[in-house]
Amino acid sequence: MNQIDYSVEPDVVQGSLSQRDINEAISKPLETKPTKLYYLALGISSTLLLIGAISLALTLYYGVGLWGINQPVGWAFDIVNFVFWVGIGHAGTLISAILFLFRQRWRTGIARFAEAMTIFAVMTAGLFPLIHTGRPWLDGYLFPVPNQHHLWINFTSPLIWDVFAVSTYLTVSFVFWYIGLIPDLATLRERTNSKVKKIIYSILSLGWRHSNRHWHHYEMIYLILAGFATPLVLSVHTIVSFDFAVSILPGWHTTIFPPYFVAGAVFSGFAMVQNVLIVIRKIFNLQNIITLDTLEKMNKVMLATGLMVGYAYGMEFFIAWYSGNPLESFVFLNRAFGNYAWAYWIMVSCNVIFTQLFWFKKIRRSIVPMFIIGVLVNIGMWFERFVIVVTTLSRDFLPTSWDYFVPTIYDIGILLGSFGLFFTLVILFIRTLPVVSITEVKSVLKTSQPVHH
Amino acid sequence: MDKKYWKFFDELKNPQKTKKLKQTEFSKETTSEFNVENLYGLSRRKFMALTAASLAFATTACKDYRDKGVIVPYNQKPENTLPGKANYYASTCTGCSNHCGLLIKTREGRPIKVDGNPEHPSNKGKICPIGQARILNLYHPERYKKYFAKRNNVWQEIDFAAFFSDFVLALNSAQQQGKEIAIISKPIYSPSFARILEDFQKKYPTAKIYTYEFLQPYPKDLAWENFYPGSEKFDYDLSQASLIVSFDSNFLATEGNFVQNIRSFVSNRNVNKLDNFNKFYAFESDLTLTGANADHRIPIHPNLHIPLLSSIINEILVKHEGKLLNKDLPLSLLKEKFSKFNLDALAKDNNLNYNLLQRLVYDLVQNQGKSAIITGDILPYDAHVLGFLLNEILNNSSNFKFKSKAIIAQSKLEDFLSLTNTIKNGNVGAVIVLSCNPVFHFPLDIGFKESLSKVPFVISLLESENETANYSTHIAPISHNFESWGDFFDGYSTYSLAQPVIEPIFSTYQMESIILYAVEGKMSNDNYHKYLMRYWEKEIYPKTNSAVAFEQFWFSVLHDGVLVLNESQLTKPKPDFSVVQKINIKSFEKTWTLSVRKPYFILDGEYLNNGWLLEIPHPISKVTWDNYIAISEKDANSLNLKTGDIVQIDYQNKFLEAPVFIIPGVAEHSLSIEAGFGRENAGIIGEKVGFNPMVLLSKGIEYNGYTLDNVKITKLHRTYKIASTVEHHSLNDTFLKDLHKSRGIIQEGTVEGFLKNKFEIHRHRDNISIIPEIKYTGVKWAMAIDLNKCIGCGACIASCNVENNVPVVGKDQVLRGREMHWIRIDTYFSGSPDNPEVSLQPMLCQHCDDAPCENVCPVVATNHSPDGLNQMVYNRCVGTRYCSNNCPYKVRRFNFYDFRNHFANGFFYRDTLKLLNNPEVTVRSRGVMEKCTFCIQRITEARHNALSEGRELKGSEVKTACQEACPAEAIIFGDMHDPNSEVSFWRNHKLGYYVFEELNIKPNVTYIAKLRNKKEEGLS
């Protein structure tokens, strides 16, 4: 392998692609018939979705009693999945907004995809607060709808903050993503031969004519939206963490939760983006646009956030001891050595131990190991939420009310269904819209920049 | 200046017309004289009228309308009934032999709640959990509704006339053939019914009456009769006892008149009168609720009771002879009898705490006349004799109440043996079973079950299906207690009456009525009622020397439910010491034993069809819906057994397979199991509930009691799921040990420590808060629970269930941890697993001022009332369960399903059970959180009463259901702002503490720390 000179920024797009090559490469999946592999993937993901839908339908019919939740453990897979998917949804906006503001050019290859994943993940996540309630048909009560009874929501409840945080995040992410898509949709409009597609692209591209003025407005609104989305990256998971931090349960009631949750969210989000992109770049031959350098950078972010998460794990123990609160120290000892120790150690090994392999450049830059570590990180992060939600609830204040949570097939069905929903949306997306921003990639081409000869 | 404004010319020019127009805004024909007929064609209004009419027709005509028969409008309302107002009627409970007085609450003619009759001298307004929950059996959909006869081995439905003609035929044919008519019944305490049976015997001289009780303490009764000739039974009166020593007795929960025992036991557990604080030593093999309440609990092998009692007697006779107050003892005889027993050696041989035994002997001698030695129903004859003797030595007989002879003498087991023999010889023409279940209750080797096939007529008068019904030829449905008349004599001086509070729901007759019909030959709905009145007029009324006319007297007794006569009570008979002489005291052998005990909540198995009772957690193990073999941790380890492992018990070649449950504090080599479970015909609810240890019993119980010696225990390699409402951890697990103490959930001390100020509840009530404190004015509700008095009987749970329509969830849901009880009793163990200290704590919603559940609810479904209640708005609740997660006491309960529908295929939606619900309390749907409301419906009722009477509401006017039920009066409820209220006294008591006070959520339930009486003074 070549030695890389880190003092010089490597080319974001490799292989001396022309602008036309880029158009071709990115539009190809949209313009060709899907392969058998595509249908297979879609089949698998929609089967998972169907499993989830059936489990959910039964739950709606019979009640959340079908799940494994019990008296102390009022939340389990429902909220674990919610936090997990909101977390997955963090990488997208971070990549597209924060890295944009920091002028990280390597983001261009992955930003579009990451943003789309954000939207799909938040959509998936958003389902859970709605279906976890005992009477989902009354979910409207959770929204501030004026009514003749003068019933109003409780603004001191973090669940209400969640409603606002998640819906704002979804809206802003969607707008941001769509604005970024407009020039690409115009490009596709130009390229397509199909009449139907032409109409759809024409409508969606909102009359974009690549004019100078359009570009001027576009750049401005994109910057403003990036600035707008940036605090949301931090706020969403902060507020999700408030669900726990605002409560009084030992193990939940900690001030470290907001940064810890955000770091964890970025961590798992990057792992998910990395995982999916590895597959996409292989299948659609986008290795030159989504380069190994980009993947390596993502791995570095994962290493950094993984260390943050690891620090948080350690700090929680330290504070539990340092606070001198016996309830607090019990909870943490119980996590590590109690009835759910197995979950705790899955979490620690996946999130902290295995990611240390990214210190090695060789591993950072080889596809199979990084893919496996990415999968492990997502497993670890799911278990992190499981550990936080379930172990805390299962053994809290009164020893007489302790109980052990065991998931039922409906819990697992809905978990699978959430993956099914997410991947079905992803798979439909890759054949419907350009997975890489054509415009932005062109802008980082060597040839598009003024260079000295 | 008065300027005139006008809107149109008419107004200016013709003001009169305009004024008129304004007054009649709507023109005439559209309002007052509207008539459909006058409308032409299909006007809008006609169309609307037709639509409305057709809709009304459609909805009424097409509805699945069931004719509910005669509907009585309340415009001709029954006397004394006001819709929405409850009526209370005094009655008597026929659940067990204690016959507690009842006060039944009815709404619009249907009973919905039962409490004790405060006028009744023995239970004084309190009843046990069974008494509370029995109301379910009144509305039980599986009650017999029809008469049945077995013809050619097939059950056929018949009508009453056919049944009765068969009944008379059976009696007459038996009579003519000179064959016996056997009447089998529970013990009969009704003087009038006893008279009917007497008349019955006169008419049918071959009739014989057999009575029995489930797990009847034959040895105890026999020992009593022998030791105190002339008295048949007795009760304890612990109100004067400052020292109580029990030997394998569960007198606070299942044995004797336990409601009365609880009351008299806790009457001397008042932390404000510490000089008069009783002391309780319990020796027991299993950990019972009684033992859990002891100051000193000593686990001993069941076979050790006899040598221990003998050694104590010897120790007293030898060392303290001079101090004995009773001078009528045959000392030399006794000394000789017990000379071979030595307490010192016994303690050493059996690893008992010698100092503690010395302390016990000292205390016994010090408290002569003021102590009670209580021997358990499961013990053999000898142990009871020794117990009675020890009481006699210590001059304790004032703590006994001597019952006069029963109205109908109780049968011995031999009587049943001879009955089966007679049956087998073909000399019994008819067996009449009066609301009991002998097939299930008798030891199998009596052969009663098999013999029944030889009887031409087996006529069972039953409320609902049981095992005996299967072996009968005829079944007659009978009325429930609450549909029946009755009178009862308690053996001392109290007569009580039972009156129907509802018309028989299934048009049944009460059993007395049917027997009376056979005697008198004529039938009417109220034949027994009339008979009862006649009987009282002739027999009881004259005894009172009352000045009022009989009718007036009758109605006043009926109103009070109870009549206490000034009859001279039975004086103490002279003890017969020769009984002691005759017993042959065996020396101790440590063999494997199994004791068969009375169950806590299902009585004789009859209530195995009562979901409420099955779901009340076992007071010690918290197991619901099952029984099990209790085993010590040591034995379990040596046999390699875990909780839930099935074992086989082999006793004299009789076998029982049942799961074990490791219980701390069980003596080594001692197993025990509760009976009444494992019934074969107990309906939907009782199906496959528990294991039946009755298969092990044999004729020996009459002398040996219910402790089976020399059993063999074998591990079978199968397991069974036992539904316990708590997680059980080994007491050796240092990580989980004593958390209740380190977390301050249970705060306890000793009487001595408290007196010397060594024990004080740590409290830091600086009111620090970053949010402004909410000021409460007026009444603010609070509760105090005195842990010194609470014995953990569970009456509060049963009462709360009935009052608040708490659903039954079933075993599968308890296994999932979804029990719904609003109040529970938490049991904590501390110390070693061999002999733990048990702490009990009722736990319910603490109605915190700064309730953590309230601020997290997204829809304000749980909020705070101005009088300090944490309330639930069921309609608003979407069921996020966040409140429950954030509740440190975990007292919130979630409807994971519509449990009424989910449990046993909609069992609780079946017709009659709908009548059971308290109309004042919402029936919660699925997906809704619920919890204790401090009985807000009672608070509201009291407030309404106060309002309508134009006065301020006083805190003392409200009693919560748990408080009303608590036999120990451990629960105090009221207005904390009233400085004179009891609850504010306890809130500021030195021993009062809040659970998790450090969370600063300001709970409103004060717990009064338990003091254990371990006084040590006096003995050097």
Give the structure's gist in a few sentences.
With 453 residues, chain A is mostly helical. In chain A, 69% of the residues lie in helices and 0% in strands.
Structure description:
The complex is a heterodimer of chains A (453) and B (1020). With 453 residues, chain A is mainly alpha-helical. Chain A has one domain: Formate dehydrogenase/DMSO reductase fold (Up-down Bundle), CATH 1.20.1630. Helix content of chain A is 69%, strand content 0%. The longest helix of chain A has 34 residues, at 158-191. Chain B folds into 5 domains: 9-62, no CATH class; 147-211 and 409-486 and 501-536, Rossmann fold; 218-402, Dimethylsulfoxide Reductase, domain 2, CATH 3.40.228.10; 591-724, Barwin-like endoglucanases (Beta Barrel); 780-1012, Alpha-Beta Plaits, CATH 3.30.70.20. Helices cover 29% and strands 18% of the residues of chain B. In chain B, the strands form 12 sheets. Chain B has a 7-stranded mixed β-sheet, with helices on both faces. Chain B has a 7-stranded mixed β-sheet with strand order 26-20-25-22-24-23-27. A 4-stranded parallel β-sheet of chain B has the order 11-10-9-12. Chain B is globular, with a radius of gyration of 32 Å. Classes of the chains: A mainly alpha (453), B alpha/beta (1020). At the A-B interface, α6 and α11 of A face α28, β31, α32, α33 and β35 of B.
Explain the layout of strands and helices.
The complex is a heterodimer of chains A (453) and B (1020).
Chain A: H1 19-31, H2 36-62, H3 77-88, H4 90-101, H5 108-131, H6 158-191, H7 195-204, H8 212-245, H9 257-283, H10 292-322, H11 326-337, H12 341-353, H13 361-364, H14 367-394, H15 409-432, H16 438-443
Chain B: H1 9-13, H2 15-23, H3 44-62, E1 86-92, E2 101-107, E3 110-116, H4 129-133, H5 135-138, E4 147-151, E5 154-158, H6 160-176, E6 180-185, H7 191-203, E7 207-211, H8 218-227, E8 234-236, E9 243-247, H9 258-266, E10 279-284, H10 289-292, E11 296-299, H11 305-319, H12 331-338, H13 343-349, H14 354-366, E12 371-375, H15 381-393, E13 400-402, H16 413-424, E14 428-434, H17 438-441, H18 448-451, E15 457-462, H19 467-470, E16 474-477, E17 486-489, E18 494-498, H20 511-520, H21 527-544, H22 550-560, E19 562-564, H23 578-582, E20 593-597, H24 611-615, E21 623-624, E22 629-631, H25 633-638, E23 645-651, E24 654-662, E25 670-674, H26 683-686, H27 701-704, E26 707-708, E27 712-719, E28 723-724, H28 739-742, E29 748-750, H29 751-755, E30 781-786, H30 795-803, H31 811-815, E31 824-830, E32 837-843, H32 852-856, E33 862-864, E34 870-872, H33 882-886, E35 893-894, H34 899-902, E36 929-930, H35 936-948, H36 961-965, E37 971-975, H37 982-987, E38 992-993, E39 1005-1008, E40 1010-1012
Parallel strand pairs in B: 6-7, 6-14, 9-10, 9-12, 10-11, 14-15, 15-16, 20-25, 22-24, 29-40, 30-39
Antiparallel strand pairs in B: 1-2, 2-3, 4-5, 4-16, 8-13, 17-18, 18-19, 20-26, 21-28, 22-25, 23-24, 23-27, 30-37, 31-32, 33-34, 35-36, 38-39
Helix pairs in contact in B: 7-20, 8-15, 11-12, 11-15
